[in-house]
Write a structure and sequence with these properties.
This protein is of the alpha+beta class and about 350 residues long. The protein has two domains: about 10-120, no CATH class; about 170-315, no CATH class. The chain has five helices and 19 strands. The strands form four sheets. Strands 7-6-5-4-3-2-1-19 form an eight-stranded antiparallel sheet. Strands 15-14-13-12-16 form a five-stranded antiparallel sheet. Strand 17 and strand 18 form a beta hairpin. It is elongated.
Length: about 350
């Protein structure tokens, strides 16, 4: 090891992060890339849209010094503000694509790192091509999203992001009589709902909430209360009428698993008003998957059959909106795979260095 000064390295940029990954909130530029000379720190603040994409950089005076725009699949355009005229001009070779940040900002579409030299985005596990709307590598988790291992955000980039390209939440619904263990209300034909959490490394955690004790069959839906019980239900092992997949960050996956653990530790009683579907909806909320409970209830209890209908309607609505949008845009063969996101507090920082020689 050696000190930066003796190794010929100098601090180039510092980054400050919010609690969600990735969420750059500020950059300190020590180079001459921006408006100040080298070694005079220039503080810049990030502006984000609803998907987390960076849409602008402001300086300490609040002036928008650089702005960013994207097509639905992330093809990136960067415009720099002319300090003399106040107008914005495309920052690229002769005004052409690809464009790059005049301030050395590497974080753009969905706040991922952009390599302007080759026009690609480097996610944590894979490289993404915004012109193709495809990953350059296959999904490390295999066919969990379908047969296309290169598809990104389920061909729906206006609704979903994929911070890592891997972690997922799966809600599985059996509308009646064929649930994993054949126990509880499901045995009586009243259905069952359970949830899977898939980590970035492919580890799968499944959980289903059941009435324990003698709460088997139809007697479980007579309004009685039973001790809670759990099975490691997963959509890989058991029958379901339909399953609904959501791409999430590993942080959100961890929060979901923690919620499952807390629920097991508390071990609440099972009842109609707190059944398997209630459990799955409560757990999924930790990953930002909000389900309108008023639309899935029957006489005050969360109904698996109504949840199945509701989630199918939501999926059809998203697909319809996507198809309508596709009709208004030129076909370019781009496809896209899917993530709920939540707001988090907290911040962290990181640094980039640049070499002064090739040693």
């Amino acid at each position: 090891m050696c000190e930066a000064a003796t190794c010929g390295w100098s601090l180039a940029r510092e980054f400050f992060w919010g609690g969600r990954f990735p969420e750059p909130i500020a950059m300190i530029d020590h180079t001459a890339a921006g408006l100040l000379p080298a070694n005079q720190p220039e503080v810049l603040h990030y502006l984000h849209d609803v998907l987390g994409s960076v849409i602008g950089l402001t300086n300490s005076a609040g002036t928008l010094v650089e702005r960013y725009s994207y097509d639905p699949y992330g093809k990136t355009l960067v415009e720099r503000r002319d300090p003399l005229t106040g107008s914005y001009e495309l920052n690229g070779a002769d005004g052409n694509f690809p464009t790059w940040s005049a301030f050395g900002n590497p974080f753009m579409w969905t706040a991922q790192r952009y390599d302007a030299t080759i026009g690609l985005y480097h996610f944590k596990y894979r490289t993404y091509n915004p012109v193709w709307g495809r990953w350059h590598q296959q999904d490390p988790l295999g066919y969990v999203d379908g047969v296309n291992l290169y598809e990104c955000v389920a061909s729906n980039p206006l609704f979903w992001i994929d911070p890592f390209g891997l972690a997922k939440i799966i809600i599985s619904v059996d509308s009646g009589g064929r649930a994993p263990s054949g126990s509880g209300s499901s045995k009586g034909g009243y259905g069952h709902t359970w949830i899977d959490v898939i980590d970035d490394d492919g580890t799968r955690t499944g959980a289903g909430f059941y009435p324990g004790g003698d709460g088997a069959g139809k007697e479980a839906v007579t309004g009685k209360t039973y001790p809670g019980d759990y099975n490691d239900d997963t959509s890989e092992k058991h029958h379901y009428d339909d399953k609904f997949e959501y791409d999430v960050s590993q942080e959100e996956a961890n929060k979901t698993k923690e919620k499952i653990k807390d629920h097991k530790d508390e071990n609440p009683d099972w009842s109609l008003k707190h059944n398997c579907t209630s459990f799955a909806c409560d757990v999924a909320r930790e990953a930002g998957i909000d389900i309108d409970r008023d639309k899935i209830r029957t006489l005050g209890w969360d109904d698996p059959a109504k949840l199945l209908k509701y989630l199918r309607e939501q999926r059809e609505k998203r697909d319809k909106e996507k198809n309508q949008k596709d009709k208004t845009e030129p076909a370019d063969g781009k496809k896209g795979n899917g993530s709920g996101q939540t707001n988090h507090d907290g911040a962290s920082s990181s640094k980039e260095c640049q070499g002064n020689d090739s040693k």
